[in-house]
Amino acid sequence: MKTSARELKDITKAWIAISIAFSVLLTKELFSLEFVINFLISGLTVGLGFLLHEMGHKIMAQKYGCFAEFRSFDIMLVLAVIMSFFGFIFAAPGAVMISGHVNAERNGKISLLGPLTNFILAILFLSLGGINMEIIKMISYYGFFINSILGLFNLIPFWQFDGNKIYHWSKGVWFLMVIFGISIMMLQS
Q1: Catalytic residue of the set 7, 29, 34, 54
Q2: pTM value surpassing 0.85
Q3: Is 84 exposed, middle or buried (0-12, 13-18, 19+ CB in 10 A)?
């Protein structure tokens, strides 16, 4: 997997910013041990979900011989942190920028890897729930919940979301992915 110093910097910046945003959202008192624990849990669950989602896009694009690197959207990172203080988050940390021969099918398959990665992570996090340790149960629940939501949210067939690219490539694949995501969400109950 080809990368650059700029991409590594942008990934790190985005990972830290979304981990802070979700930590603020989860924490009652900011300057506390609770914030540090929530930052670590957010970094592991949301951060890992974000990183592997984007790397899924990158790996598939590079498989097709395209140039692909993640670029952070710095204004959106700042907004995510600010919004978290008001009790909600809309995170658009960045995207993998792709150049090369990408037709509708390739674009759909590249886009598919992001939500699919989140669904696989959700299942893996859920499988940790059987371990009888409070911190592991927290990580399991939060990792499952956030990755399920990330996967489904990215399947919205609108604007530049993955779902729009998948939908334009194959309505059948898009529909199956939505059903798969909803089925995964129902595993928690």
Answers
A1: 54
A2: yes
A3: buried
Tokens matching residue 2 = 């080809």
Residue 11 corresponds to which tokens in the numbers above? 């990934």
Confirm whether 29 is a catalytic residue.
no
Distance between first and last Cα of the chain: 38
List the beta bridge partners of residue 72: 94
- One digit per residue, the tens of pLDDT, for the chain of length 189 reads 889 999 999 999 999 999 999 999 999 888 999 999 999 999 999 999 999 999 999 999 999 999 999 999 999 999 999 999 999 998 899 999 999 999 999 999 999 999 999 999 999 999 999 899 999 999 999 999 999 999 999 999 998 899 999 999 999 999 999 999 999 999 876
